Amino acid sequence: MIDRNSDRQEVPVDPETGKPYINTLAAVAIAPSGTGAELSEYVAQAVGVIRESGLPNETNAMFTNIEGDLDEVLQVVRDATYKLASQGYRTGVTLKLDTRPGFTSQLHAKAELVDKILKQD
Question: How far, in whole angstroms, is CA 65 from its chain's centroid?
Answer without folding.
Answer: 4
